[in-house]
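Hi everyone, sorry if this is the wrong subforum. Our group has a chain we'd like a structural model of before ordering constructs, and none of us has done structure prediction before. Sequence below.
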Amino acid sequence: MQNKEISFEDSLRQSQIPQQQKQSKKKTNNQDKQDKQVKFTDEEIKIIEMLTPQIKQQQQAIKIANGKLDFLFDGSRDVNLVKPYHEDGDENMYSKENITKRRKLKSDPDVIQSIEGFMSHYQFDINNKLIKENYLKTHIRLAYLLRKDIEEDREELKFLLLEDWEHDSKGNGFMTKADLFDSLFELVDTWTPDADKSEYIGFFELLEQKYKRQQDEKFEQLYYEIMES
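Answer:
Right subforum, don't worry. Here is the predicted structure as tokens:
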């Protein structure tokens, strides 16, 4: 049987078939990807366009707040103050207007998200209970960030840590997630200068940054040294 002669053009045409098939598949795959992309309705697009400037404005406000709040974590914070910052209460924060603002902030979705994000640093057991040891292991790190004046006074530090535990656990011997949320809201509510949403969120952003820079092993050891003293 004689081999069928194939012209150069036929040979070239056949060699192009696999490539054409690949291109066809590629187009199909790209089309599939496009089909899978999220499609928004006109109403949803309008909402997104409306919210985008607000989101940018909020991000800018938080950025400004971060710069304003950075002094809280400065070791020389209290040097030129008549009273240490943590003792210098602002009576204006207890005005009817500010009390209302502070209560609203506790239920603000963005503030809630910030607090719940930081709650991940606390280790709950399988029953969703936070025991004393796990609370203190994290809390001691907050003390070193916000109360640098007592870093060397371990007796005072231990007293304050245990006092906070009794207050936050309400004497129950453990804390629930709701208890921890209340505790962290009280923390931000106490330390921020103003009843301002951007400051509350900014506080936890800064706290998160500072917390992550701390050495885990150092504070694990420090916890046992202080509690056993």
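For your construct planning: The mean pLDDT is 77. The two ends are 100 Å apart (CA to CA).
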